[in-house]
Structures are given as structure tokens and as C-alpha cells.
Amino acid sequence: MKKIYHLSTCDTCKRILKELQPLHNFELQDIKAIAITNTQIEKMQQLSGSYEALFSKRARLYKERNLKEQSLSENDYKALILEHYTFLKRPVIIVDNNIFIGNSKKEVALAKEAIHA
What we know:
The protein is of the alpha+beta class. Helices cover 39% and strands 15% of the residues.
């Protein structure tokens, strides 16, 4: 499976997608236009090891809802990601059985290496 979950309105996602070119045989899913399904989030969790790893604590809603003050479980992280796309740390890049989450330079470099291997 070769897939990238991204947000088309996010400048960082746009920059990373450009940096990863060419993306042969990749499916791109704009998570605002096409919501993440339960099956998709479960697959991402299997690859990453936890829902928390997929969760963005930088999301505006995270601060607005004062979630930092709460003790969130794995099920809470999953439910929040399914509830609103902004809670998914972006982009999520899946190359076969490898997952790369977020926009850190290291993660993007590893993803690029896997894509062009």
C-alpha cells in the first residue's frame, strides 16, 4: 500500500508533497474532503503502534477544548481523530508496511528514502 493522508489547504503538507515527488502509484487522500474511516485509522494504528502517535497536540481544537488537562486514553485519541481531521498529525505517509507521521525533517527524509528506494 502506498498512500498519503494530507490536508490540501496546509502549506506544510503541500511543501512536503512537492519534496517527495515523483509519487508513482501513490494514493493521496485529502482528509478534509474525504474523512478518515475507522478501518483506515486502525491500519495506521497497527503500523504506528498507538493512536497517540497519530494525534496532533498542535491542533487548535486541542487547545480550545483544554484536552491537555485531561488524561486521554488510546480510545479517546482514536475517537478525536475520527471526529475531526485536524487531530491527525500530518502528513501520514504509508509505504508498504512502513508509516511516517508528521512533518519533522527526520520523518520526511525517512519517507523520501522509502518512497525512492
